[in-house]
Amino acid sequence: MKTSLVLTCLLALTAPAFAGSKKSDLITTVPFELHDNRMFVSITLEGQGPFTVIFDTGGSNVITPEVAKVLGSKVLGTDNTSGAGEGTVETSTVRLGSMALGALQMHDQEFMVVDLGAIKNAFHFDRLDGLIGFEVLQRARAKIDFDRKVIELFEPEPGRKRTGKLVPFQLVDQRPVIPGTIDGRPSKILIDTGDRSNLTLFERFAVASGLDAAFRGSAPILTGVGVGGPIPGKIASIARLEMGGIAIQDVVARLPTTKSGLFATSDLSASVGIGLLQGFNLEFDYQNGLLSLEPRKKFKQESTFVPVPK
Questions:
Q1: Of 31, 259, 275, 300, most Cβ neighbours within 10 A?
Q2: Could you report the per-residue pLDDT of 188-224, keeping only the tens digit for each?
Q3: 162 near 287, Cβ under 8 Å?
């Protein structure tokens, strides 16, 4: 399914969203590659690597059992966790002395050890050694430049004067959530670079708002694979999404039909993924709870759903 996507700025941008950063505050510039609408970066752990991980604003430190074995990590504890799929998976926790993302050095980091093999195989990734997200974003202000395919990490600046279009967010379970509307319904929207889709509606919100009616004529398909297994769902077009004073028309969205896991149990309304986020250059400032959205001037985008590879 494909529709045209139109961005309308409801509030004028008075200056570029990235204005005001001082080069002396720059810690590092890290290139990333997009595969299946996921941002892949390289890190080193305990001086070893490089390891290939997804930069995921909806996630936190994760490595695979294979990486933990290579590092000889001592297990601190075991548990079970759920994710986007319906099932639960066994996990363990390890503590690593060092992690490096470009020139950013972080020490004494806790990682969850999770088998990501099903995701790697479903999307034919050459490597998938883990995830990073919350811990890095808590440490440094991050600018994601899709035009240049780089992430710039800066030292925090709590008192910095700001220009441009800024959107306040709250951290919910260590994930950035902004206010918005979906077809006029007030919404709590997760900004998730780990979501390959444009817009994912969560079941409780979809039912309570009546937006599930838009999906009733759609046949269920496989919309993704996550921690916990496959993510079946339905695809439909949502007339209007507003976030941070920016309106996006005719968005192809998915409604997972999972009976358990994040999409079935969360009180959030929806998540916006890379399908839409790559239409902007972004800045995440966790210290001040602010997100900057700067529409890419030369980027022409169609709202579409990309099927899971066969």
A1: 275
A2: 999 999 999 999 999 999 999 999 999 999 999 999 8
A3: no
pLDDT in tens, 45-98: 999 999 999 999 999 999 999 999 999 988 887 777 767 777 778 889 999 999
pTM here?
Answer: 0.89
Pairing of strands 104-113, 62-63: parallel
Q: Are 77 and 191 in contact (CB under 8 A)?
A: no
Domain 23-154 CATH assignment equals 1.10.10.10: no
- List where CATH 2.40.70.10 sits in the chain: 2-19+165-304, 23-154
- Any residues with CB less than 8 A from the CB of 115 and at least 6 apart, and which? 64, 65, 89, 90
Domain over 2-19+165-304 is classified CATH 3.40.50.10810: no
